[in-house]
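User: Here's a chain of 288 residues. Predict its fold as C-alpha cells.
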Amino acid sequence: MLNSKQSAIETMKKRQSIRTFDTQNITTAHLQLIHEYINNEENLIGPFGSKGSIKLIQVTNHVSDKGIKLGTYGFIKNPQAYLVGVAENKKYSLVEFAYTFQNLVILLTKLEIGTCWMGGTFNRNSFEQEVKLGEGEFIPCITPIGYPNQKQRVFDKALRYVVKADNKKSWDKLFFDAAFDVPLDKQKAGLLEVPIEMVRLGPSASNKQPWRLLLTQDQKVCHFYIEHTPNYSSKLGYDMQLLDMGIAMSQFELACNELEIKGNWSVENPELPLPNEHMEYIVSWETL
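Assistant: Prediction complete.
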C-alpha cells in the first residue's frame, strides 16, 4: 500500500489538476507502490461493497506498450502513464468507484505525482483496447500521471482560468443548517467544519461542484445530496456528476480520519423537502 505521513488535509488543500508533465519516467519504486495499491482488493471496495478496478498503462508519447495510441484530445502533455478506472454504470457503483479513485489520487499527490481527473476529454475506444472489460463494465474516468513540469505550467494555468477551476462556490451556496433554506455558518459546523471545507475544495467535472451538504441540528449527521446540472454529460451515456459525489465522500472521510472523527456512511434518506427538482439524496455520514 502507498504510504505517506504527510497531512491528507494539507494535500487536499494544495492539490491541483496537472496537465503538463515532466519527461522524467516514474521511478521504479513509485510504479511498484502503485501496482501494489491497485492490486490490493481492499483499496478498490467502496463503503457499501461496490468494487471497481484501476489499471495502470505506461506510455511513451501517448503510445502504450501494445502500440495503441491513447487519445486525450491535446489536453495532456508528456504523460508517463495512465490510471484507467473500470466500473459498472450504476448510481452507487459510480459513486463508490470515484471514492476509491480519489483516495488513490490524494496518495499520489502526497508522493508529488501529478494527476488530472478526466471523464469526457479522452478517447474511450483507444483505452478500451488496452483494458479488458467485463460484462456491464465501462471506463468512467482516467487520470494521466507523471511528475509535474514546474517550468511549463502556463498551459495549465490558462486552462484552469478557462474552466474557472479556482473559483469555488462559497459555503452559503453549498452547505445547509438542518433545512435547505438556512445556509450553514462555519462556526455552526462543529467538529465537521474542516471535513466539510475539504468537500468544497474537491475537484469536480467542469468545476460544477454539484454537492450539497445538510448538517443536522445536533451536528451528528451530514446528509450528502447532488444538485444535477440538467443534461450534463448525457451524451456520454452516464451521469458523470455521480463521480463528483464519490470525490466529495473521499475528501470528507480523509479529513475525518486525520482529525480522528469516527463515523460511518449509510444510505437512509431523511425525506426532507428539496429546493428544486434537480436535487437528489445520495448518502449520509453519521458521527459516532
